[in-house]
User: Fold these one by one.
Assistant:
Number 1:
Amino acid sequence: MSQLIWNGLFVGSFYALVALGYSMVYGIMKLLNFAHGDIYMLGAFTGFAILGAVGGISPGMALPALLGVLVVTMGVTGLSGVLLERVAYRPLRNAPRLSLLITAVGASFTLEYGMRAAAGADPQVYPLRLGGTSAEILGARITLQQIALIIVAVALMVGLNLLVTRTREGRAMRAIALDPRTSALMGINVNAVISRTFFLGSALAGAAGVMAGAYYGKIDFLMGFLIGLKAFTSAVIGGIGNIPGTMLGGLLLGLLESFGTFWLGGEWRDVFAFGVLILFLSVRPTGLLGERVTERV
Amino acid sequence: MSLLSVEDLRLSFGGLLAIDGLSFTVGEAEIVSVIGPNGAGKTSAFNCVTGFYRPTAGRILLSGREITGMRPSGIAGLGVSRTFQNLRLFGEMSVLDNVRAGAHLWLRQNFVDALLHTPRYRRTERECTEQAHHWLDFVGLRGDRFGEARALPYGEQRRVEIARALARRPALLLLDEPAAGLNHGEKAEMLALIRRIRELGIATVLIEHDMGLVMEVSERVVVLNFGREIADGRPEDVRRDPAVIEAYLGRDDEDDEDDTDDTDDTDDTDDTDGKGGADGKGGADDGDGGGDGDA
Amino acid sequence: MTAPGATRAPALGRAASRLLDSRWAGLAGLVLALLAPFVIATPYALSVMTSAAIFVMLASGLNMVVGFCGLLDLGYVAFFAVGAYTSGVLSTRLGLPLLATVPVVIVVTVIAGVVIGAPTLRLRSDYLAIVTLGFGEIIRITANNLDVTGGPSGIYGIPSLATSPVVFYYLTVVIVSVAVIGASRLGRSRLGRAWRFVREDEDAAEAMGVHTYKIKLAAYIAGAVWGGLAGVLFAGQLSAISPGSFTFLQSALVLMAVVLGGMGSTPGVVVGAIVISLLPEVLRDFAGYRFFAFGVLLIIVMLVRPQGLWPHRSREASS
Amino acid sequence: QGLLGGDSQAGDGKGPIVLGMLIPQSGSEAAIGPYMKNAADLAVEEINGKGGVLGRKLELKVADDACDAQTAVAGANKLVTEGVQVSVGGYCSGATLPTLPIFGKANIPMIIPAANSQELVDQHLKHVFLINGTGSQQATAAMAWITKRGAKSVALVHDNTSYSKDIAVRTQKLLDEPGGPEAAILEAVTPKESDYSANINNILAKKPDFVYWTGYFQEGGLIIRQLRQSGYKGAIMVGDGSVSEKLASIAGDAGEGVFATMTQTPDTLQGAEGWVASYTKKFGSAPGPYTNQAYDGVRLAAEAIKNAGATDGAKVIAALEGIDGFQMFSGPLKFTPDHTLSAGGFQILVVKSGKFALQDALK
Amino acid sequence: MATLEVEALDVHYGGVHALRGMSLTVGEGEIVALLGNNGAGKTTTLSAVSGLVRPTAGKIVFDGADVTRARPEAIVRAGLVHVPEGRRVFSTLTVHENLQIGGYLVRDQAEIRKRVDRVYSLLPRLAERRTQQGGTLSGGEQQMLAIGRALVSGPRLLLLDEPSMGLAPLVVASVMELVREVNAEGVSVLLVEQNAKAALKIAHRGYVIESGACVLGGSARDLRGDSRVVEAYLGGL
Ligand SMILES: Nc1ncnc2c1ncn2[C@@H]1O[C@H](COP(=O)(O)OP(=O)(O)OP(=O)(O)O)[C@@H](O)[C@H]1O
Ligand SMILES: Nc1ncnc2c1ncn2[C@@H]1O[C@H](COP(=O)(O)OP(=O)(O)OP(=O)(O)O)[C@@H](O)[C@H]1O
Ligand SMILES: [Mg+2]
Ligand SMILES: [Mg+2]
């Protein structure tokens, strides 16, 4: 039982990590950024390329090396996100919201198959592995990396939440989400704030990509698709644009999958997870922590 | 039996009592104004009557039938129509389509008619369009009625909203600040419009901050403050009610210098002595003709 | 009274826009579709054109839900699957001809529309999106796991509606045309206007007596029936169906057809659907780069025409 | 060619003989396509190098099926339109099934190198030949090795695709017969994910001493790694879809000692070392899943055309039915009345220092 | 020197020619009223000045700098703040956050706090509703919030689009008083108002616009006396 919970939490924190960026971008532009998962993929491959270029790394240096790679990768994916927004999303700011969906899917295809052209369709094996020293805690087998990963995810969540709810930048993000035109009248540089949001969100996705590569060991050009969907799901369950909600949403999805697998078997897992989600949303239509918007008439 | 009767209505948002025991009635073809300071609960009362808010307590009866807690479309189905304080037009649809929305409830047409374009379909569509034009003429829309509603200037949008509400063929019409954003001449037209609506036998409840209009057109005035009713009576009585002056209108000596023109129009004896009413009426009567000249 | 604001389109422009307006353009499109096999009738061309026609039907069904009513549905393929599987199972297990399964398909898809729509249509669009996505996945996985549906390898040996691909193509074109016209007529009727009211402003629609919930459900059901019938055609065309045809990606592609063409515009979604279904075929020779090129083209097209290829015009012809 | 224009299909005695190959080049299975295409290219090149068939060169036309039925149907029609004379493709069963009638109507024989679901066989179509071992043959081989190893409790893990589930379910049936080892659990995983800990949790709860993974190498490598990380000590075996060096490199150290059920491979076949070398030299990577089947498919097509003395569909089909003793990786070929391999020629391989080596020929 | 100079401005919305050679000036420390019928182009003029819509011709000079093509945020930075038509408060932000957003460009937190407190004291109703979501305020309360929000940004030129709309008579008076006070502190004001009497009472000068161009301009006193203005906007004879 505790193993189930732990597994769910761990997988969930991965979802949450990707979902945080997704949620921020979604929150500010109401854009289903289908390419977000592919930024995650891009992150994994960037890390892979850097490690390959650097050459062998002694096992003792694995963690510091990983941190270095992480930082560089975050920069790269962050900039890619900014570029993506600049090229594919910004020109459509005043178009119907769903028009962005097309360019997002287009960007997703472009990234995926661009990577396929660059790195091949075959999966790549990460040159750096986080070995598994595990310990038994409360009857669950837990590895150090898992704990580290969860700590990172939670820390990012807390930091982001502070940023969004407490700072001027965060207020600007929320204002833009509500009404970009009026935000500009407040002196907010809408484009710059959106760019920064994309940078942050994409950097997070890139970090998650590297961590996934190092933890699981295998990356391929389609690795972002499924996790992108799950991140979207997590972000929505949590309450769109709500950072702690997104985190909880990711964890909840992880737990649902874990328990669904246990109770109904792997083949019915997603039916269970989505079934519960649908029931949940029909009772609580704005997600876990989503604000109930009372719109005046 | 009165058309609308609101009995001891209460509405709270968390700790805030937006409406606190409001009761009033509206008779057939009567024009009743609801006035009060900002945040007094006027719009909230409309929202309760039209089903957008569920009252915390109290009853709302329409022709003796209880409608408390029904969904808005159900209440609309019983003949209640409204406009919104913050315009709620279907912005990306044509002006004509906006007014056609009013026809939704009486248009007898089903999906088979629509798929096969039966004679009934053609007839009802034609009728619907004719009606839409009719009501746009009725409210005196000047702007382009085939283009998007959101492209109209603010004041014109107000007229479209009223036309839409009228196309519903209501027994009771609720207007939330119809004269906001209109200049003097346009207000006169609005006044005339409200009178013409009454002539159709439609009862009207009006929220307005423009005292000139309110005093001119209402048969009865209900005054709210902090969700409570502080006066209910004929306009001239309400105007003199000290509680109303205190809470809402302001004292004469204050307003003769600084206060709104409209209060002045009807209040200030030295300025437009006795003409406030006549002037309003005059503007109203030749409103259609004069309106064009203004534009 | 005529007003200064009333704009009058120049006669020429109006004539042009009339010509472009659905009826003539639609007729021209239909003629084009009917003549195409006389120009090119290779099995390949026919199969691609048939698929495109079926895709048009899907898109016009989804257009009622997304374009007209503004409900973001990311799991539209669920109805496609329900239709395909219902007719597939009935025709192979009970030996019914495909045509005979149509009434059952309609009933089943209506039920599916209600089942999926009823609990979820109260949700706001983003939440609705995830719930519909979930339903799409649930249907696919269920088909993958059950025995009646043939598990992961699906059902094979479904009888076709016609003996030759050419006849099947013509049959498809006729059915799809009827469906497209039907959708467009619904869109211009009282019901269709109500859909647009709901899309634009639910509160205002309620105030005008539009029971928004029922109206949305109606859009859902209509979309479901269209999708289901497209599923029947699909089963007839392929003769074998499997869960792999009903993935989320397929839903996304149909949605893209709607948006790319121009939401709420009938000629738009027809064009959009044709583009989305033909483009990958046109790019087929790029093999591995196919989807790369597809992605780039999608972005470019959208940047050039942000409102869609053939957007809906809200201006009415003054009559 | 339009309805008015009449057909002018190529197919006469001149020009190259065209072989068609439908494989996934995009979509979720895109990784497989290149392996099969490379192998086919290699075979075509070799045969052309020796003068071709019937004095004509071979030409390979490849179409993407994206592992999706509709794309596959369009692709198949495209191949038919381009005048393909024999089809040597077919990887995903779901995408291959709807193409059968298309090739059938055009009277084009199909040599299917990879797809092997029972539904392909059940229709008893005259033009369809499967040269991959069937699920039941593989299951039998797996069962033999499980028994030989003395395992008691077996966990069967598949990825819910028809190919993988078929092997797992058939193995389960064999295990369910009284006596011998038991099937502990039939577990399905979702392909294309990274974390299988929930599934592994289910598996370990049943305390098996043998795990048989019947899916592909991408997930296989991860599952092996995560099984070992979770403390599983028993034996692990994978199906032929997982036989790729990538499996071992994804699994890392955990991959050592993993068994596999596999038809004969160049590595295990005497005299085939040179083939691996030339493949690796030409394409810069080692052969992967279904490389040898795709290679054999082309060779078989050439052989049948040669025997038939013509490219006419009916004659080639007859020639294929008549083939006896043609040497393939999987052994000498003779089709059963079902048009499948008589014996799968399955062997047991084992991972040794990152490579698959023969463990037991199961003779 | 004039704070704002608008010269021969043209604005098109698609096919609609909304401004046709609009010109006006706002002098340093002036309150200038802009009167006109519905659709005359008042809102469009303000939107063009604040950078929300792009003029097709003409020139806008603010404080000697050409801002015709500047982006809205740059214009705000220069000290020109626009209270838009229809209030446009941020609906799910609280009243307090809405006010803070007004001070987005102000780096000094203490200064923002000071200005917000000042708004609270000028418009006490807002203080009562500090934590309420902007979107749930009553119409008049939202109008107060929109005005208060602009004040927090500390403008040098304030564009007000129908600030009295939806306000109770007493509040109209106090808002007009507030505008006068702000003006007394050196802020120039361009005021669009349908309540012409109230506007002309506090304005120094005014313009009447029709069909996208000024047809009349002059001191408030002159306008109050002009028969055309009286007839159309003031309602006297
Ligand atoms: N959904 C809500 N949540 C919280 N408070 C609300 C909500 N709706 C209204 N209120 C509060 O209830 C009070 C009454 O609001 P209402 O809109 O009815 O006022 P009003 O009389 O129409 O004022 P105005 O003349 O300014 O339009 C206001 O103080 C408002 O802030
Ligand atoms: N988005 C738009 N699209 C098309 N036309 C528009 C748009 N906005 C305004 N217009 C047109 O521009 C003209 C000027 O409109 P504007 O809103 O500036 O008028 P206004 O003087 O502010 O009127 P009001 O007193 O009603 O607010 C009008 O004819 C209007 O129809
Ligand atoms: Mg109100
Ligand atoms: Mg305006």
Number 2:
Amino acid sequence: GAYGATSHGRRVDFSGTVHFTAMGPLTGSYAALGIPIVQGTETAAYLINKAGGILGKKLVVDPVDTKGDPADAATALAEEVALNHPAAIIGPITLEIHGVEPIFTRDKILDGWNGGTPAFDHNTNKYLWRCNPSDSQQGVAMAGYAMLKGYKRAAMLFTSAAASQSFEPLIRSSYARLGGKIVATKSIQAGLPSYSSTVEAIVKAHPQVVFTQLTPPTASAVFKNLESLGALNAFRWVGTTFMAGTTVVRAIGPSVSKAHMVSFIGSTALSGAATLFRSTYRKVNHHAVESGANFAYDCTIDFALAMAKAKSFTSTKVIKAIDQVSNPPGITVTTYAQGLKLLKKGKKINYTGVSGPMNFNRFHNVIGGWSVVRAKGTAKGLVSVIQTISPTQITKFISGKL
Amino acid sequence: MPPESLRGSPGSNGSVASGPTLTVENLTVGYGGTPVVQEVSIRAKPGELTAIVGPNGAGKSTLLKGIVGVLRTTGGRVLLGADDITNVVPESLVRRGISYVPQLSNVFPSLSVRENLEMGWYIHHGDGRERIDQLCSMFPDLRSSLRRPARTLSGGQRMMLALARGLMLDPQVLVLDEPTAGLAPKVVDEVWGHVLEIKAAGPAVLVVEQNTRRSLGDANWAYVLTNGRNNLEGPGPELLEDKDLIQLYIGGG
Amino acid sequence: MIQYTVTVCTVGAITAILVLGVNVSWGWVGQIDLAYYAYVAIGAYAAMVLELPRAHPSPTTPNSYILGLHWPFIPSVLVATAVGAAAALVVGTIALRRLRGDYIAIITACTALMLTAVTSVDNHLLGGYIGVYGLAEPLNTALHLGPTGYSYFYLGLCIFCLLLAYLVLERIYKSPFGRSLRAVRENDTAAAAFGRNLFWLRLRGYALGGAVGAFGGALFANYLLAWNPASWSLTEVTLLIAGVVVGGQANSRGVIIGSVLIESALPQISQLFPLLTSNSTIGPSIASILGAGGIIVMLRFRPGGILRERRAIDRTGGPESLVPHVPAVSFARPTTATGVAVGTSSEVERDA
Amino acid sequence: MLGVGFGLVTASIVALSTVAMSLQFSVTRTINFAHGELMTVGAYAAYVVAKSTSDLPLQALAAMAAGAVLGWVLNVALFQPFVRRHATKLVIFVLSVAASFIIQNVLEIGFGGSYVDYQAGSTNAYNVGPFQWTEMDIVTMVVAVVVLVGLHLTIRRTKFGKAQRAVADDVLLARTTGVGAQRIIALTWILDGAIAGLAGMLLAAQVGSFTPTLGFGYLLVIFSAAIVGGIGQMYGAMLGALVIGLVMEVSAVYINPSYKESMAFLILVAVLLFRPQGIVTALSESNVQ
Amino acid sequence: MHDGAPAPLLEVRGLRKHFGGVKAVDGCDFEVRAGEMVGLIGPNGAGKSTVVELLSGLLKPDAGTVLFDGRAIQGLPPHRIFAAGLSRCFQLAKPWPRLSVLENLLIAIPPEGKDTIWRALLTPPSRVRAAERAARDRALAIAEQYRLYPLRNDYAYTLSGGQRRLLEFARIALTRPKLALLDEPMAGVNPVLQVEIERGIRNLVEDGTTVLLIEHNLGFVERICDRVIVMVEGRVAATGSLAELRDNPIVQDAYLGVVGAA
Ligand SMILES: Nc1ncnc2c1ncn2[C@@H]1O[C@H](COP(=O)(O)OP(=O)(O)OP(=O)(O)O)[C@@H](O)[C@H]1O
Ligand SMILES: Nc1ncnc2c1ncn2[C@@H]1O[C@H](COP(=O)(O)OP(=O)(O)OP(=O)(O)O)[C@@H](O)[C@H]1O
Ligand SMILES: [Mg+2]
Ligand SMILES: [Mg+2]
């Protein structure tokens, strides 16, 4: 970490270091999911250190590669814990959580998890905090949105067992509760050059909307197939957060994506926070923000604030402070520096990050609103918000009302 | 029935052209551990049959492999005429006129018999069709099997194919490792006849044989190799007189 | 630090067991078996579904596993081992009956991939891609050890199992059965001509490997307390195979050393270049490159592995009466050398 | 029917790569698990060139060059030194997997682990009989056929081809008949790399965006095609690729598409059970044995 | 010779094996009685080795019956035929290359009982050691006899051509079968050691083994064999003693050639 240790031109004197572990698959086929975790954490660390570190200590981020494998993750984490005694872990993703959960629980280390599986919707592990909304909330939001738009027939198309297993049952049940009908469900293997038969089957089922999560090459192939079938306009697409990522948008083609697809991202931050995040991210990582990095970023800052609040790195104490810095009531803060200043003044704060309000429920799951976004249609593949769905709406959707 | 001259190039017929002599001086060869062949010296003159005999495992095949560049030598020299060809790679030695028929793995099993023969013509242009035709009249068994993969040949047919491949060229030095092993008596006679004929036409013929009696009988010069070293040498028929030698290597027949 | 050492040793012991299993099919039978990790996974899954209670207490996804028998540890591990052997018998019956060498490699790789597809796509069977989890520490219901004490206990258990596996396999290797396997590996036609039932021998060897794999897998799952499809892939089996090759095929002690080198020493190479590997973007890649490069380098210096396969060696100089009476005809090598330098000699018999 | 059409495109790409692999295998008798990376490298080379020019032949050339260079390097730096020391099959296996890891990670360092976009050729669609293909699809199939026929002629009709097979049988014996075995082997690797690189570029154009694991993910499909067809058999590889490509595409209509690849493997198992030497070998050698 | 005409040990009737157009074995009939030493000679490519492959089960015959010891064995897998007491050596030697010469010999000694995993685990170590020592002693004695003793610890692939043939024969000598099919055991072997092999064959026969010997060295055939079968083009052309057959025009023309007849 070569984070400039200056703030307003003066040197910050750190009285030692504190380590955060950023873990996830950094190599192999899931690397695209793990690398943003590390980069988001490092972006946060840069800003935290610029603001004087945590309790006077410099925050050091240790990237740990899990290779997407719980077994590798377990040994790698054991090594990391022994060598660096991290105060918190950011990550990993769903794939490895069951391998590392026993370790951080045993060693009483805070974990800011980045997985979506609904299996943890009712989490009772006090060290585990999920910083991104569960897939289940997203599923409900997607189903509700489609019904609001008046789409009563839907299909689902997912690559990878992971996405389909977590989203499929959720969307299906929420959609049914709201009165919609799922007419086709397809799960396809990522990365093949063509999916014509699958696409054809979906077109034949005549849905009005298709819920989806696809890897970029798959998305690209699927849309090509759709185009050659002349069925681009047959229905609209509602995608998960993943589909709002720039690579996916570019793979589909920004203008095609703009015309046919909306996707869901965690409710937008106040614009100041997002701009700071984006520019710092670019400075630290030398490229544009990758999807998913925002959660790791928010999580890191939230934990850091909680440590500042608890005046301790001891996890049992920090846990008690997390709610106090992230949930209302309190003054909304969007950066670490802001929060720190208010905490020093003895104010109650409510951190709201780039991924929206970081409000944890009693199961340590963050509950937030959702933004519906659409591609801008420019070559960079950026998206813009067209609508928002509030937490109250989600609650309504869950009870079967629109 | 006996085929026409085996020397294809016109002009060389009849006249005993004297090609280069193959000279091996103090050659040391092995497989990485203690050298199997140590400081062996032999000489094979053009127009002569030079035989190497010796017990199994004496290092005869190893010596030949050292000469033709299949094994790297660690001491001594090999000369072709005046040229030093020590450790020259085998693919260039063929072009210098050394033709070698190994004892084991001497055919390309998955190539057809015809392709095996064509491989013997590899360094020339074309496919050596006429030459193949000549050799097939020498080994009629091969003609009927030209299109079969060599792996389906019988033991003796394999040896014939290996020999025929070695004879595709007009070599200056012909190196044969046990050319008659596994051949029927009639074929042995024929093959041996050809070998004598070839040598008479000019090239140096260096042959390793377990059919000791016969090879010594016909050899202009012969070497006895034991334990990887030169043991004895002399004109073949003379060696046959040596009672001790008979006792040790040839058996009292 | 001690806790870390315990972790490393436990995983090391389990890996060593796994490597001993790979060594059976790769080293003894000479088969390129890429499905090996599937047997590890089968053992792990089998142990888990035997030990776990049927329903997992999670309200949103009421995970239930096909068996969920809530068995105790020891019978679960034993049955898991048997299941691994049975699975290997099934795959072996298909793959070994008529196929050879490289074909088996591909077939087994495909089998492993199909199994991964099935387990990760169908979430009613074994929990889909999330896998099975939520196991209580085995045997600790009776032992009541604290976290540290328990980790020592489990380490001890794994080392005991490793020793057991080692002794059993050594015994088999030296037996006529082991020798027959090697004969089949070296030249199957000749082995058949000398009365060996090729298919049956190969199959039994293969199942033995599968059983050891499943045994190791069961121990592994009980250590991790979780298992999912992401934990078994070509990468995993390759590392085990690298252990076998680096250590010395078919030499049990060698392969254990090899596995220790691969699993523990190799990752340390990257510690030697902290500047390169600490970078979060390229660091992990560089670490992987160093790891893979390390394997290549090790093989470069010892292509035959650290320890050679043990040949039956006779060291008696031989009784006096046996000394050849005609030295000139004997085959004794010119000077000394009865040991041969493998890998340097220029000609290795190819199968015609 | 559309499925069949796409199957044909997939099959062309798989066939190219399979034939390249099969050629290299039959000459050197080593399975190269880094074969997928030859494709990946080709894809990245095309991607890099595409940044500065949209000229398709140039991109193809770059892909082939990159693949060829990598093939050559693999041979010289990795396989030859070990083959010379009589490394066993198992050692070679480990080596090639290690090489595959290294290349993937080098690419990851160079291009990042996430997807890069690659758009090549036009997506104008045409109806050809019952099929519907884009221009790029048609280009892909034509290129595949041309390359495969050319390769076949080279191998059957030239001395190079015969020498290759001789080297495959017995390197030492081949050398004593005057074959520069090292050269033949090096050329084979280069050819393998060039064709695989081309296949990688075509694949990348089909999938539109890719990561460093592009080729690795295809490895087993390619091996399966090679085996279904009969390893080392040129037409066999083509036939195998066709079978695998069509099965993957058409089976998806009837079963859970997640099992697409598994279907291909099931076909493989079935073929091997009944024709252990693959379809084509079984046909051509039935009169011999 | 055999007045009571006991049932032959090996009875081959109408044996046929074609490879596409090649009629390698084409209706071959012969028999071998227990205790006999029979020579099988004939020109190259006559089908002699193919007969051995068929008898030992490595090839399946197209037609014909093979009765061995009263049992039909045609089409049985090789290990069953071996178990019935018929073993063979290979014309192109097939040692187990990366095993030591000693191990090559040990494998040839049939394990007592079945070589199963359970037996390996359950036999008491002392019994294992005793059995191993006995086998080793036998193997070493044979190795000594065929001058392989100094090479016992070497990998088999390092053997020279002649040494391989010796190992090939030594393996057969260790198995002590009822019937041994020897395919050119002496080709490439030094004359002195040929005598050793000759003695080995005689020993085999004394120990109750019946021998079918394929050999092109007629001197040996003449000395060892009671009876000779001549094969030409896949069929038996003649049988009898070699002395009788030397004058047989078919044999002379196809096999012996001018010099051999002289
Ligand atoms: N697999 C095969 N495919 C085709 N032809 C074969 C095959 N095996 C053997 N043959 C042919 O069958 C014939 C008999 O071969 P066999 O090996 O039995 O001869 P042999 O009598 O042993 O000769 P030799 O004395 O040379 O060893 C030969 O012409 C041979 O080429
Ligand atoms: N690849 C090898 N590696 C190590 N040693 C070898 C190798 N090949 C042969 N040897 C040894 O070298 C010695 C000489 O072998 P070589 O083949 O030269 O004998 P030879 O005189 O040709 O015997 P033969 O008459 O039996 O063919 C033998 O003792 C043999 O064991
Ligand atoms: Mg020799
Ligand atoms: Mg024969």
